[in-house]
Design a protein that fits this description.
Pfam families: XdhC_C, XdhC_CoxI
Number of strands: 16
CATH class of the largest domain: Alpha Beta
CATH superfamily of the largest domain: NAD(P)-binding Rossmann-like Domain
Protein name: XdhC/CoxI family protein
InterPro entries: MoCofactor_Util/Proc, XdhC_CoxI, XdhC_Rossmann_dom
CATH topology of the largest domain: Rossmann fold
Strand content: 15-25%
Structural class: alpha/beta
Oligomer: single chain
Number of domains: 3
Radius of gyration: 24 Å
Largest sheet: 6 strands, parallel
Amino acid sequence: MREVLNPLLTGWQTGGVAGLATVVRTFQSAPRPAGASMLVTADGTVVGSVSGGCVEGAVYDLATQVIEDGRPVLVRYGISDDDAFSVGLTCGGILDVFVEPISSGSFPELAGVEKDIADSVPVAVATVIEHPDPHRLGRHLIIRPKGSDGDLGSERANRAIGDDARGLLAAGRNGTLTYGPDGERRGEGMRVFVNSYAPRPRMLVFGAIDFAAALARLASFLGYRVTVCDAREVFATPARFPEADEVIVGWPHRYLAEQVAAGLVDERTVVCVLTHDPKFDVPLLEVALTRGPFAYIGAMGSRRTHDDRLRRLRESGLTEADLARLHSPIGLDLGSRTPEETAVSIAAEIIAKQWGGSGEPLGRLADRIHHDDLDEATLPTGQVQPAPPA
């Protein structure tokens, strides 16, 4: 919903009704992840996408119908490999899409959700997408780290789903949860989709050089909140890094230690050390490799710089297990030359680390393209609606 939130809120504020389609579950090589949304406004304007074009026409028709009759609907789109090109969903994946009417009456908590997201406050929206009582479909519960708003139909359901959704929110994950009709944890009948809106992950870039400027631009595009830090005041200026969210003048290792101590970094935070100067690198990497819960730690430099850096870190007392967390020299082998190309190689390594990619050309691999937690053996049974021609 994040990508369609502004136009959704505009219609909500003026008393209009919009049709919101959300991918709530995917299987095999689905083109968009769970949480991807497409909005159809009251005047027929379309914002966002649920499949990159494969099923948008059918979803548009459903959203228009939902706007008119006010009844939410859960639909599955998928195809067999033999029918891939004839029906348009050429990826061979399967999508569960929930389409619901959104108005100030059906979703009075929307403005609060928008404010939380804008203020980088963690918030999740739990929506009933399947229930034997049609009156419960589309109900919302807004979950925050300390409390919740809304109503899923019973206090028991609110408590159970609120507790479980809070765990997903803490991990920054979306997911579909199954319960009994009244929120019983052992049972079936009610399915709830939890859409988590955690604050943007952070990228901490150390070294105010041209490579850092290029990386800040790309990282911002990828959704990171970017901080550039350097001890040299003449180089660390907002004018040189307009895409960075903040530019800090200070000794890198001290700044990072302060951020760790204040709890301002987490398991999604990425650290990129581009200074390749031992007086900055070594104390900074000592902090990063031993004190932080970081998703990725990379350091720029030549092979000679890398070997010298490892020697200095070992002399400082770091173990081989500590050093194994370090990606150095930073980035994938793309033959990069320019700062922009180098930024792409760094981002590519970060993405591969995040999702378990190999970094190999896809054409050389036989495995599925998309890496996710679902195994094909978990594919649910049930009728699959073919996608219409694109």
